[in-house]
Design goal:
single chain; 320 residues; 8 helices; globular
């Protein structure tokens, strides 16, 4: 009996998880590598060790515009992995935003804390160079799902100048950054509803984490996202300076002094897709190399899911 084709996937966010699940279900051997401490990518969550509070400091909600992701959301909702929150048609994940990605990757070979630094390919297949540990295996196919500039650097490590013409589209993708600020506060902040969207100024939105489904009984805590413009202007500042500036902006917005019991800033350099690659995925059939992500279809979790699934279908057809 022939061994199943071996596929390496770089990135354990929604695009990588979607591609991994489709390929695994089609009978291929999938190995996922991610530099983070946990899966999820920008569907990120952080637990403060002192307070035990969870903060979704990346993507906040899931929405479905098309049938494929709507079907997946319905299945997750039936199993308690997501629940309606904030507005009609929007969902938060339970107990945190990594849950849908963890569900897609359940039972698969996943390596976190593994940074892929280079790629090589010969007649036998693909090899990965890792910063943390050696990886001796040869893979029949390779899927890249990091933000486009990071994927471009990996491809350049193999073919400087993007010698593979099918990946020139990576250069079309553009992103806006986002500074995220996680705050635990003595009491719930005085704004109506679960999400505050000022519409102008340094703050794009404030999300009431303690009101999300599955967080009942949690002490008051919020996640603040700075606006793309403010984040770009302060991109290289220290987290401490950003914390102080955004805390002052929030106090001015609410007309009160805020004394958090916990605060931590996180910078997302590639937060929001502002220009796409112009295709659902990028693929070189001869090399069996593909790229998927929200950079292909737009700034939504659904776009990452659809892109990963579409690339997986194409790759599965070739491998079969």
């Amino acid at each position: 009996m022939a061994r199943p084709a071996q596929v390496a996937i770089v990135g354990a966010g929604m695009a990588g998880a979607s591609a991994a699940r489709r390929l695994a279900d089609a009978g291929f051997a999938v190995s996922v590598f991610d530099k983070g401490r946990q899966v999820g990518g920008r569907m990120a969550s952080r637990r403060d060790r002192e307070t035990g509070l969870r903060f979704d400091h990346g993507a906040q909600v899931l929405r479905a515009h098309g049938p494929a992701f709507r079907h997946r959301l319905d299945a997750w909702r039936a199993r308690g992995i997501v629940a309606p929150w904030d507005a009609p048609g929007t969902h938060a994940a339970v107990p945190d935003m990594t849950a849908p990605v963890r569900d897609l990757l359940a039972g698969l070979e996943v390596h976190v804390g593994r940074t892929v630094t280079g790629l090589t390919r010969n007649a036998a297949g693909w090899r990965l160079a890792l910063a943390e540990a050696s990886e001796a295996r040869v893979f029949d196919a390779l899927v890249l799902t990091p933000p486009a500039p990071q994927a471009e650097r990996l491809i350049d490590s193999m073919a400087p100048g993007l010698g593979a013409p099918g990946f020139a589209g990576l250069r079309k993708a553009a992103y806006a950054p986002c500074w995220s600020l996680m705050l635990a506060v003595p009491q719930e902040l005085p704004f109506a509803g679960d999400v505050l969207r000022p519409g102008e100024g340094p703050i794009a939105a404030v999300f009431r984490e303690s009101a999300k489904p599955g967080r009942s009984g949690a002490a008051p805590h919020v996640t603040l996202h700075a606006s793309p413009e403010w984040s770009a202007a302060h991109l290289e500042e220290t987290p401490e300076a950003v914390e102080a500036a955004l805390l002052a902006a929030l106090g001015a917005l609410l007309g009160m002094a805020i004394a958090p019991t916990h605060r931590r800033a996180h910078r997302w350099r590639y937060a929001l897709v502002t220009a796409t690659c112009g295709a659902p995925y990028l693929y070189d059939a001869a090399a069996r190399l593909g790229y998927a992500g929200d950079a292909c279809l737009g700034p939504r979790v659904e776009a990452a899911y659809d892109s990963g699934a579409a690339l997986a279908e194409r790759l599965a057809a070739d491998l079969a």
